[in-house]
Amino acid sequence: MPRFSANLGFLYPELPFLDRLEAAACDGFRGIECLFPYDVPAAQLRARAGANGLDVVLINAPPGDWAAGERGLASLSDREPEFRGSITRALAYAHEVGAPRVHVLAGLLDARADRAAAVERFEVRLRWAAEQAAQAGITLMIEPINPHDMPGYLLQRQDEAHAIVERVASASLKVQMDLYHCARVEGDVVEQVRRWLPTGQVGHFQIAGAPDRHEPDIGTLDWRGSLAAIDQIAAATGWDGWVGCEYRPLRGAVPGGTSRGLGWMETG
């Protein structure tokens, strides 16, 4: 089985953020990932992760004003200074907590906007950001996100993301392949894994059941086939990344709800 990381923005929702690390460790996770951990001092997150034997494997760069509906700055016009500031902040935080990956959100495309211009801005900014990431020894991620969950998000398909990575042409930029989003947009996730993982451009996976984003074994996602394909290709290529558990526990924010839903990890 692949290595699983607990996404603490989704799992153990009944607990305060830092207490989720101990819960994840008790459930057998050896890695954790976070959406936007910046309200927690990096030293505290690093210490709590170390005390629980956990690697921080991924964080997101600041996305702009999330509460106001922003979903990233990387492709937005007239936001370059804020974008650069978000990357600088993310790389510094990731370095302090030992996270080797930072997800950079592309942003929402206004219905009246020029898509080609937005993609061009995205690539120009990613080239700069990848240079900064390379100096810090960190890899940046870009992720296709389905339009049902995030209408208007610039990047929605695997082929779009991989084409951008090819054009940017930096070893410090890879694709974050979320099997839930992939299933909602492109269907056959096993085929998508077999197509894209051998390219060397996939840096991280995430998983959730489709269509309701609960545990992977709830719904239509071929999670067993997907994990088997990851294992097979990893054995052949040496890929050694993580699969992030980014789903909403079906039992919700009740004590032990996340833990009781982890049986799929044992039966896969």
From TrEMBL:
Protein's UniProt keywords contain Isomerase: yes
Residue ranges of domain Xylose isomerase-like TIM barrel in the record: 22-266
GO biological process, alphabetically ordered: glyoxylate metabolic process
Gene3D superfamilies reported for this sequence: Divalent-metal-dependent TIM barrel enzymes
Catalytic residues identified in the record: 143, 246
Full protein name: Hydroxypyruvate isomerase
PANTHER family: HYDROXYPYRUVATE ISOMERASE (PTHR43489:SF13), ISOMERASE (PTHR43489)
Pfam families to which the protein is assigned, alphabetical: AP_endonuc_2 (PF01261)
Entry similarity comment: Belongs to the hyi family.
InterPro entries registered for this protein in UniProt: HyI-like, Sugar_Epim/Isomerase, Xyl_isomerase-like_sf, Xyl_isomerase-like_TIM-brl
Keywords for the protein's UniProt record, in alphabetical order: Isomerase, Pyruvate
Species assigned in the record: Roseateles aquatilis
One of the record's GO molecular function terms: hydroxypyruvate isomerase activity
